[in-house]
Structures are given as structure tokens and as C-alpha cells.
Amino acid sequence: MTEELSGGDLHRLRQLNALTVMRTLRGGSALTLTELAQRTGLSRASTEDVVRDLLERGWVAEAELKVGTVGRPARRYRFRADAGRVLGVDIGGHKVLALLSDLDGEVLHSERVGVDPSMGRMERLAAVDRAIAGALAGAGVSTADVWATGVATTGLVDGTGRVMLSEALPEWTGVDVAGHVSRRVSGPVLVENDSKLAALAESWRGVARYAKDVVFLLAGLRTGAGLIIDGKLHRGFGNAAGEIGALPQVGWIRAQEHLKAWTPGPGVTNIFQAARDGDRKAVAAIRRYVKDIAVGASALVLTLDPELVVVGGGFSRSADLILGTLRAELDRRCIRTPEVRASALADEGVALGALRLALDHVDAALNRPGELAAPSSFLA
Amino acid sequence: MTEELSGGDLHRLRQLNALTVMRTLRGGSALTLTELAQRTGLSRASTEDVVRDLLERGWVAEAELKVGTVGRPARRYRFRADAGRVLGVDIGGHKVLALLSDLDGEVLHSERVGVDPSMGRMERLAAVDRAIAGALAGAGVSTADVWATGVATTGLVDGTGRVMLSEALPEWTGVDVAGHVSRRVSGPVLVENDSKLAALAESWRGVARYAKDVVFLLAGLRTGAGLIIDGKLHRGFGNAAGEIGALPQVGWIRAQEHLKAWTPGPGVTNIFQAARDGDRKAVAAIRRYVKDIAVGASALVLTLDPELVVVGGGFSRSADLILGTLRAELDRRCIRTPEVRASALADEGVALGALRLALDHVDAALNRPGELAAPSSFLA
DNA sequence: TTAATAATGATGGAATCCTGAATAATCATG
DNA sequence: CATGATTATTCAGGATTCCATCATTATTAA
């Protein structure tokens, strides 16, 4: 949302005012003209003018009147979140999750397809197709209604939406994810690393909503990180920001070993459950795992000095067993220990981030000076 | 310079246009109205109106006519960089350097006062006073003309301009730098860590001018880092960003030991000179030093994936002996190795960064909507 | 039915921008 | 030294947009 403020002629001023009206309407509920005028700082008359424009162009719609108040009932206007649809897809090792939402990011349908790390790329892509088709069908939406699609995948992603390198899924390296998905939906397809998108989701709808600088740790079968800096997702020059796990000293690769080394007792398959039940060896293994993770986390924290560290990923359900040790380790290593919290987005975080990526694309078009022509301009 | 674009009434539009005119004039040479109109995108008539306003309020001045062209000679207008002065001060271990510049950042006078790491805080503050007084006197400027002052110091600086912790100068911990300097100059005093300001200087006038994401390494008797992210100085939530040296594994503290362990031969006191002259032990010591530095640098680079790493500080004069090893080490450790370059700002980098800090403050006031009242408003 | 309340609609004034034509200043040339 | 070419400046007219104000309209409460 940071633009160079550049002035211009009167037409541009109207555009700017139309944008502020749109932003005020966006996400919130329907507003009357008087309310809109108050919030935007414009006069009532001008607000009316702007809204008439937006109404004609299809960006806003009239909501029902609210009855039961004294005085003449006011017309109420709302953002036409139903004018288009966006799609967010998480391609993971164990599941493919597709979320279909309206332009407010309100999820209309979610479709989950189970996959397996051992699957080949064709099988996995077929699962992606099924998830997308299911999400569209479930919401009763055709591909033409989809304005933008965000896709999350493991591994490094290049500028064209191709997977440059995936350590967790070797078969996946080199797959042209954007190309494949583009053939299934209309509109632009944006592909990004899953840890980064999970971080984005936290700063959108998660526990990091009010923080400007955030380190997000994806703790699960793989370990990864995503960075929010100054409220924005930080990608890095080569899209490789946050890949601290590659540093051998950091030991994110060997961290998992501690967990794998634990042998389940009879009837218990989950190390975290075992630890809660008092299994000493499980507790110790988890502690060693967290200590390894914490080295890399310290490097991220010392580099950025964030306000908040969020732990997400599969293991965040067992935050009670992780956060204490993590806090202690960070405290030991860092100059200023940030707040440490667990994600509350369950296993939908990554897909929500993908959704947000698609929404960002729509918003950018909304804010592009000279645009705001009409919603249908997306389909051109 | 990044503001939310918010629209408003016609008066606000004029303000925005006045700002774009100011930005166009800023830093560049004098321009005619026709040139200004072309660059700002405004019509000639409106540009004239805006410039008349700015002229009346004292922000711009008429420059001399340029003769020798065909046609009626055009009036030319320039930013009144001479309307005020700013001061940048670097308080280091071995010197205090004060730069006095105009509002374009053109340095008018620089004053250097030698100090010693063993000095007490009173002695050092006295040296600061002398440097400031010398810079003012040298440029023939009174304290009242100084609109803003930036100060660089070693150690962690808190929000009020007090040194929270200085490892290099233990006596310096707790000194209220902003308070002291405020009593010597008029206008606001901004204090910041020296590594951070050196980074700022590189992205302003150094080799990092065209990079958005930069890691700056201060390599000298102390080691430090400063980060430029998305074109802006990154401070962190507690102003402790870049303090990766605190991580014991990183070894920035022991790095110096390698250099100190080298014993000078007869007639040679400088390890870098010795290395150039073929002293094997000196070469090896430097290599070990750089390898230690590189561990922390790798952590910074892996975290941020910057476009560029800049090496500054006292040792950057000997970049020929450092950069090769540093590149090789980064290459070994990082996923994508950024470009590595040496600073070209000699030992004025930190002071220039302090100057930029002061100028940023002036610019912010210039860009604050509702301001742009008159230059003299700074003195109120 | 009337009073109170609050939204809508219409009018006029002011600020700002743009376009285009008339005027002014300088250089080159006969 | 006058004239034309060239470019700047100045001025006038028209258009857009915003704001303030007032009359009108729709609804609830008494």
C-alpha cells in the first residue's frame, strides 16, 4: 500500500478519492453515505458523487435498507466482494488444499485431497487438478469467475513460477507449477514458497496481525521460515530470503533426526502424545529438536530484531511442548527476545497465505492509478 | 517517502503537486518552467502557479538566466538548499568527525578531532563539542541555522538517543548523547548506531545506490552490520537489527584475535601491509579473520537474500585482501551468493550516514501533509 | 395528524487544472 | 538597424471537482 504520492490533475484526485472510498468499504460491512463521508474525510456531496461512479462501474452495490431507526432510512453501500473469486492452493507433502474465496477473502469452499511424499510429479499434479476442480464445483463457480490464483509449494520458486529446488520432494524440482495451474484457471497464477505464504497468512489473519516485523517458523516434517518486514512479505533478491536452514552450523536438517530416533512404545505412534504421557525419552528428543531449530531462529531474530516469532506448521498443534524450550533458547542467545507465539491457523495457514497472495494481486490492480475501470477488466 | 495515498480536497491536490515539484527540483540543478512541467506531468500554467507559491514561501529561488540559447530566455528555478543547514556527527573510537552540509547534502565543511578508545566519557563529549563548534565555525554558520543533527555512535541506541550498551567503549554505556548534543545545536537531534548509518550512507552515496536490499559489514577494530531492506534502513523492533555478532557460534568477537595474534616484524606495523609484502603469517591471520566474519555474514545473507554485500569500516581500505576470501566463504555457505563490493566512502561513511539521517528528518517534514508551510517553520 | 429526525437532492461559490491565444524577449540574418 | 524565427510568459475562458447550505423527502414517535 506504499505508493509514491504524486498528485496530478483533477481526474487523478477523483481517482484517489474513489480509492479511499473503496478501501473504506473493503472488508467492512455496508455503510451509509454519511458514515462513508465521515471515515474518508470527504464531504457528503462528494462522497455521493464518487459512490455513484463506483456503482455505475460495478465496484459497489446497494445493500438492503436498515429499518427501525428514526428519520429517513439511509441507503447503504457495500463492496461487491461477490464480483469475482480468487483461489488459494497449498501443494504439500501430505495434502493438497484449495480454498476458494470472494474478493473479501471470505472462504466459500475448501477442498482437500490427500497425497503422499513418495508420489511422482504427475500424480501430485493430478491431485492439484482434483483439488482445484473440487473447490470450484463446491462453490458452484466456473473457472472464468476466478480473477487470480495463488499457489504455495515447497522449495525455492523462481520468478516464472517454476520450482527451482525442492529438498523435501526431489521429484518436484523443475516442475512448472504456474504453467500447469494456468491451464486450469483463468486469470494470473502466482506461485510462492509455502513458508513465506504461511508467514503472510499470519500477518493477515493470524496472531501476527498487529506486528510490523515478524519471523515465522514452519515447524513440521520440514523446517522453514518466512519473514514479514515492515508489514510486507520479504522475498529477497533471488527469492531465497529466510533459507537459513541451508547453513550447516544451523542444523535444521539434522533437527528432524532427533524426532525420528525416538522409537514409539506400544500403542503410541505420536512422539508429542508420548511426551505428554510422561515418556522421558520423547521429552528429551523434542527438547533436542527444538534446541537445533533455535539456532537458526536465533540467527533470524538477531538479524531482524522482530517484534514477534510465530511457530506454525504441523508441530504447532504441540506448541505446549515446543514454545517453552524455544523461548529459553532464544533468551539465551539473543540481545532482545521477541514475543513467541503459536499459530492458530491450524493446517490451513499456507493455503490462506496463497489466497492472500492472489488477493494482493487483485488489490494492486485496484490501486493502480488509471485503473479501477471496471471489475470485468480482469477478464480481459 | 512512502505515504498512503489518500486523496482529499483541492487544497490537498495542490499540496501534492507542490511536493512533486519540490522533489523534482531537489538535488538536481535549476530547471525552467517548461522542463519542470514536462517532468512533473503538470501543465505549464499549473506548474507556474505552484512555483509562484513555493517562491513566496521561500522554498525555491530563482537561478540566473542561461544565455546563449535561441528564443526568449527562460527563468530558472532551484531548490533553496541554502535555506538551512544540517549536521552529521560520527563519534568513533579514534576520531570524532562532524560534517556540515546544506539541505541538498552538499558538505560545506568537515571537522575532525582525534580521540582515543581509552578516553573517559567527559573527554569524549568535549571532543564532540569541539568538532561541532569547528564545523559550524568553519562554514561560518551559527547554531540557529542548523535544522537537524544526526549523530552516529557505537553501541545500541535507545529511542531517546541514549547509549544502552557499548562493548567497545565501556565508559560510553549510558551516555545521553542526544541530550548532550541538543544543548549545542538548535533543532532536533537524532542518534543512531554507526553500522546502521554507514549502511544508510552506502545506499545514499555509496556503491549500494541502486540496490534495494543490502547487507553492510563494518569491518574494523570492531565488527558490525547494518541492513537496508526495500530501500530503507531496517532498525528492528528494539533497534537491535543486525546484531548477529552476539551469537557465540558466529564468532565476530574472536575474529579480531586472529589479527592481534600476529606480531609485527621490524619496521612493519600494519598487518595488511605485511600481507601485501608477502608475510605468510599475516596472510593466514587475515584469512582466518575473514573466515570468522563470514560466518555471521552468511547468516545475514541467508536470512535476507540481499542483492549486494558492502564491506566498509577501517579495513575496507584493504579490500583487496578481504573480498576474495569473503566471496569464497559466502559462496560455500549460501544458496545464492550476492555481489560483494568494498565501500568507496573512505572513513567518512559513518558521518555521511549521520548527515543523511538528519536530512531524512527534514525531508519527512517537507512531505508531511499540511506542512510545507515555510522553511522557517523549522526554527519554531 | 403532527413533530422530530435524518437522508437525499439541488444550487451556488471557490479552488484548481487545462487549453489556447496574445504578448514579450532574445538571437540570427539581411 | 529592422525583421523574422524561436521560445517564454501572461492572460482569458472553460471544465472538473470539491464544499457549504438549504429545501425536500421519507420514516418513526407521540
Automatic annotation (TrEMBL), chains A, B:
Species of origin: Nonomuraea soli
Keywords: Kinase, Transferase
InterPro entries: ATPase_NBD, ROK, Tscrpt_reg_IclR_N, WH-like_DNA-bd_sf, WH_DNA-bd_sf
Similarity-based family: Belongs to the ROK (NagC/XylR) family.
HTH iclR-type domain ranges (all copies): 17-61
GO molecular function: DNA binding; kinase activity
Protein name: Putative NBD/HSP70 family sugar kinase
Top-level taxon in the UniProt lineage: Bacteria
Keyword Kinase: yes
Source lineage: Bacteria, Bacillati, Actinomycetota, Actinomycetes, Streptosporangiales
Keyword Kinase carried by entry: yes
UniProt GO BP: regulation of DNA-templated transcription
Gene3D superfamilies: 3.30.420.40, Winged helix-like DNA-binding domain superfamily/Winged helix DNA-binding domain
Pfam families xref list: HTH_IclR (PF09339), ROK (PF00480)
